[in-house]
Amino acid sequence: MVIATAPSPVRTGSVARPRLVERLADPHGPPIALVAAPAGYGKTTLLVEWAAQEPRPVEWIALGPDHDDPAVLAAALGHAVERPVPFALVLDDVHVLRSRGALKVLRTLVDEFPAGSRLVLSSRTEPALPVGRLRAHRVLTEVRTRDLAMDVGEAAELLENAGLRLRTREVETLVRRTEGWPAALYLAAATLRDERDSAAAADRFGGHAAAVRQYLCDVVLDRMPRGAVAFLLKTSILDRLTGPACDAVLGRTGSAATLDALSQTDLLLVPLDRRGDSYRYPRLLADMLAAELRHRDPRTAAELHGRAAEWYAAEGDSERAIGHAIAAGAHERAGELIWASAPEYIGKGRNESVRRWLSAFGDGQIAADPLLALTAAESAVARGDLGAAERWEPGAAPGPAAVSLRAALPGDGLVAKGRAARAAAELAPADSPWRSRCRLLEGVALHVTGDAESAERALEEGARCGAVIAPNVQVVCLAQLALMAADRGDGDGAAAFAARARAQVDHYGLAGYPTSALVFAVSAALRARRDRLDEARDDLRQAVRLLGELADYYPWYEAEARVASARAALGLGDLPAARDQIAAASRAARRVPEAVVLHGWVDAVDAQADVVAAAAAAGSASLTTAELRILRFLPTHLSFREIAARLYVSANTVKTQAHAVYRKLDASSRSQAVARAGELGLLDV
Fold first, then answer.
1. CA-CA 20 to 30 A from 424: which of 187, 415, 502, 685?
2. Phi-psi region for residue 281, left (φ > 0), alpha (ψ -120 to 50) or beta?
3. Cα–Cα distance measured from residue 685 to residue 682, given in angstroms and rounded to the nearest whole number
4. Are 378 and 342 spatial neighbours (Cβ–Cβ below 8 Å)?
5. Three-state SS for 668?
């Protein structure tokens, strides 16, 4: 076996890659293998590992610039193939072959390679070969960048071999940031080896690191024409490279052709679709290029971001438009773009994106920009922090949204706030998300002060208005309607409203909004009443968690959610949890003296808890969860066998549990047990 290897610019470690070696060494595999990936992915190291296991004699030709002469290449190949078959031939650095004559010699070799032998081509670029035909005829094995990228285990081994031992989470961070690029991982080891805080250093590691920058300059930029380098630098601001986007940023045409050429050169671009219309740069390269652009020409970088912002805005891609406007330092334009998207983002479960945009500005910048101040106030309301909303409101841009915002802020009493909300609703356009919120606030004020009929009309309009444009408000309207339906004894109606609210929360990703606490609390109470105990427990846990995250919200809201949570806890047989919720509800309700209905709810659930406590003293609290589940069915006409079918248990199990219920309730029959449970508040009969 003859092996001649060229030195690698970066020693990437000696991590074994058995799965790839096996693919190349398969004696029944295709006769031609192509190993194609950028520099630093360990192509040569892999082939050395394979050659050590290859049973056939291996001839290795490390191609250089001289081999681009077809005569020199033909002579070298002629010497290599003049040996008994079968054998294996490695052509390393095929990317150096560029001349038409040399490529013709290479294609002839591929087409006429002796049967039973193996030809292995290693290249940094896509070779000018009929790869599609070879693939279709199943005569080609391919090892690409994605195959050579290291996983966490391989990366950990490489880093340890290089003298850096990290925790799994830190290795995962480096693999994510380097995309498994072996050379980059080796450079990370060299960079992080002397860091005291390896976790923080791993989080910071990127293309701006001096070692990475120097390596990428050596193996990428210094080998490319100046025009191509300029294209890379200026388009590095884009996270998704398409012909039109690059044209818009560069102020020129023809970028699609440039991208196509770059996708073949040094395999620099990562395709994002199968058509070859959309690409991205590897993360480290993108980091390095962007840092280099900012260093060389910060004014040009800002101008390019500004162009990108306007192009993406015209394309309707608000997320990217806002990001580029912020990067351009165009704060006023960023404020306009943010406010244009904020209502929809806030209403549909994406308030964290709005908060991320706002975090790019200082408090002074937000307060000085009316649209940013309005956005910050609305974002605060959506996360249940009315105190923060009050701080931003004075600087908010005037208009229907600001009027609605002022109506939503504390002060002036519940009845007055309800009137203000009604007036603000009349000013808001029919398709405005603020109209839905105003109707919610108006409806709540009417409901808890005793005007249920008017409240229902306002809440129904709020739910209808918010269905598409403000689901975060719609779900609270529906929860409020569920409470009202339960109040008048319409259990089916209450369940329907609660189910609609719960479904919208799931659909729009509102489960993390603290202002969704009421939805979960009402759902928990109604599910517990209908024996969906596991679901009720999950909803109750979420309601309590979200209530704990409300920073400074409406006292009526907290009181309602606490009452519903207390009802759920009682339905689940958790008296201590119910007592905790009742106490919190009582404290909140005292802050809303006008809310007579709300005070009645607190008193009623407190009385119900007293009944349950009395039942506990009488011994009925020893009912198990399974027995409570059976108890819910006893008032129905269902037989034990039919109950068993509903619960997916045996009829004997139901019979045994029912008799245990009779005994614990001191009853001798099913009817007596139902009556006794009603007296103790364990059943609504």
1. 502
2. beta
3. 9
4. yes
5. coil
* Residues 585 and 602: beta-carbon distance below 8 Å: yes
Close Cβ partners of 204 (under 8 Å, ≥ 6 residues apart): none
φ, ψ for residue 369, nearest 5 deg:
-110, 115
Q: Please, what is the angle between helix 370-382 and helix 400-408, to 10°?
A: 40
**DSSP per residue, 411-479:** -S-HHHHHHHHHHHHHHS-TT-HHHHHHHHHHHHHHHHTT-HHHHHHHHHHHHHHHHHH-HHHHHHHHH
Q: Say how far apart CA 460 and CA 456 lie, in whole Å.
A: 6
Verify cis geometry, omega within 30 degrees of 0, for the bond prior to 410. Answer: no
Q: Which two tokens stand for residue 596?
A: 């007579």
138: left (phi over 0), alpha (psi -120 to 50) or beta: left
User: DSSP characters for 161-186?
Assistant: HTT----HHHHHHHHHHHTT-HHHHH
573 backbone φψ class: left, alpha, beta (φ>0; ψ -120 to 50): left
In the chain, what percentage of residues exceed pLDDT 70?
96
What is the amino acid identity at position 406?
A: R
Question: CA 334, CA 652: separation in Å to the nearest integer?
Answer: 68
Q: Are 449 and 487 in contact (CB under 8 A)?
A: no
Q: What's the confidence (pLDDT) of residue 489?
A: 85
Question: Please, where are the H alpha helices in 18-99?
Answer: 18-25, 43-53, 70-81
Please report the domains of the chain, with CATH numbers, ordered by start residue.
18-148 (3.40.50.300), 152-205 (no CATH), 411-614 (1.25.40.10), 621-679 (1.10.10.10)
- Helices 100-111 & 70-81, crossing angle to 10 degrees? 20
State the pairing for strand pair 88-92/118-123.
parallel
Among candidate residues 268, 31, 35, the one with its CA nearest the CA of residue 142: 35
Strand 241-242, strand 278-280: pairing = antiparallel
Phi, psi of 619 (to 5 degrees): 105, -15
Strand partners of residue 119: 32, 89
pTM of the complete model: 0.81
* Amino acid present at 277: D
What residues of the chain score a pLDDT lower than 70?
Answer: 1-14, 16, 615-622, 625, 648, 684-685
The residues, any chain, with a CB within 8 Å of residue 259's CB and separated by 6 or more, are 241, 242, 243, 246, 269, 279
Q: What is the chain's alpha carbon radius of gyration, rounded to the nearest angstrom?
A: 35
**Is residue 489 classed as helix, strand or coil in its secondary structure?**
coil
Distances (CA, A) of 53 to 44, 57, 90, 282, 675: 15, 10, 14, 33, 83
Geometric angle at alpha carbon 209, from 208 and 212, rounded to 5°: 95
pLDDT tens per residue across span 540-583: 999 999 999 998 999 999 999 999 999 999 988 888 999 999 99
Separation between Cα atoms, residue 402 and residue 547, nearest integer Å: 26
